[in-house]
């Protein structure tokens, strides 16, 4: 179980970084993809992230949000909630 959780978290982190540091375009990113990445990445951790937008967002918008989440993750070493 521990290995499976580590693999799932690493996979989510790779998907997160692909959006955060990949090419910014106007292609849509659906809510299910974003929430899946965030849930798997922060599951059981000190941070809880809640994704607000209901509609699909452009990759540029999601990229900005993901980069902000990285900044907040560093700024909140004791954990917290990001909305």
Q: Mind explaining what this structure looks like?
A:
Helix content is 59%, strand content 12%. It has three helices and four strands; from the N terminus they run H-E-H-E-E-H-E.
Keywords:
single chain; 83 residues; alpha+beta; two-stranded antiparallel sheet; two-stranded parallel ribbon; globular
Overall, the morphology is globular
Widest sheet, order of strands: 1-3
Please give the share of residues in helix: 55-70%
How many beta strands in the DSSP annotation? Answer: 4
Derived from helix and strand composition plus strand pairing, the structural class reads alpha+beta
- Count up the domains: 1
In terms of per-residue confidence, which ranges show pLDDT below 50 for 5 or more consecutive residues? none
How large a portion of the residues is in β-strands, by DSSP E? 5-15%
Write down the Rg. 13 Å
Order of SSEs: HEHEEHE
Roughly what is the average pLDDT, rounded to an integer?
A: 94
Largest sheet: 2 strands, antiparallel
The total of helices stands at 3
Distance between the termini: 29 Å
């Amino acid at each position: 179980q521990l290995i499976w959780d580590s693999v799932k978290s690493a996979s989510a982190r790779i998907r997160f970084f692909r959006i955060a540091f990949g090419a910014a375009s106007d292609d849509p990113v659906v809510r299910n993809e974003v929430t899946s990445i965030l849930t798997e990445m922060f599951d059981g951790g000190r941070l809880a992230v809640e994704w607000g937008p209901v509609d699909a967002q452009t990759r540029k918008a999601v990229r900005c949000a993901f980069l902000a989440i990285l900044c907040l993750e560093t700024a909140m070493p004791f954990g917290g909630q990001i909305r």
